Amino acid sequence: MPEPAPPARRRRAKVWLGLATALVLIAAAAIALVLNGNLANLTFLPGSDPAEDTPEPATSFATVADKVAQTGKIVIGVKGDLPGVALQNGGEFEGFDIEIAKRIATELGAKETTFVQVGRYDREPALAEGRVDLVVATYSIDQSRTQFAGPYYLAHQDLLVRAGDGIEKIGDLKGKRICAPNSPSVGAVQDRVKVIPVTASDYAACMDLLRSGKVSAVPGDDLILAGFAARENMRYKILGAKLTNERYGVGIRSGDVRTCQAVEAVIADFYARGYIQQLLTRYFEKVEFDAELKVPAMETC
């Protein structure tokens, strides 16, 4: 006849039986809740709370200046396909606009700056949706929903020609062929002088045509044209026609007055310290270019 189990063993057996019964009941309850579409009401055991795996919602900041002050981080939208202005090379960005953006971020107190490439039609929504905090991307101040600080530079729609070709003013292009990328500057030229447009896919293609002598000029924003020309071995010059004023501003989400005022103070200091002139020399020295060095009239924040 088997001996009766010691009391301690009987107690352990009861504990294990109780736990097993509890687990069966929990499993049954979970199945029932799933079948009834009511899983949200299920209470989980400690250590298995799914909320622990759910990312916390992003903190909302009243202004970009507040975000930088509290986190030390900023995200700036920039172009990435403009040599001398904003060119992405691997994971790095370089150029005039990039240096402007870096210095603004530093002066705002940022310890970590992230650049995100934005296109012409993506700048406004990127700001409005909060994907970027600022935009420094040859962004001409306009009447969109975007608020602007600046301008940090006064560019112009102009023409790039080969130095030494005898073209000194826009009238000298009469009857000549000019490159015609997808740019409003083509129309600005045609409004002033009769030319023969030669269609091209982009500015790189225009530079090929200009280099080979198949066109006499390339229209576009002077700063952008100077950036493409600075990569070439031939000598080029900006004609100086100044067909329009393109006031490059720093895009900010509408209503962020505090950040706007802080950025404009930084831009004013750029001109006072000669920083803009340093950048223009650094990136466009190889091009005959009468760049703007006066402090542009600032927007009202």
Radius of gyration from the alpha-carbon trace, in angstroms: 31 Å
Q: Runs with pLDDT <50, length 5+?
A: 1-58
| Oligomerization category of the chains in this entry | single chain
CATH superfamily of the largest domain: Periplasmic binding protein-like II
Structural class: alpha/beta
The tally of strands reads 13
Number of helices: 9
Question: How is the topology of this model organized?
Answer:
Elements: H1 7-35, H2 64-71, E1 73-78, E2 81-82, E3 86-89, E4 92-94, H3 96-108, E5 112-117, H4 123-128, E6 134-135, E7 147-155, E8 157-162, E9 177-180, H5 185-190, E10 196-199, H6 203-212, E11 218-221, H7 222-229, E12 236-238, E13 246-252, H8 257-272, H9 275-284
Parallel strand pairs: 1-5, 1-6, 9-10
Antiparallel strand pairs: 2-3, 3-4, 6-13, 7-13, 8-11, 8-12
Helix pairs in contact: 3-8
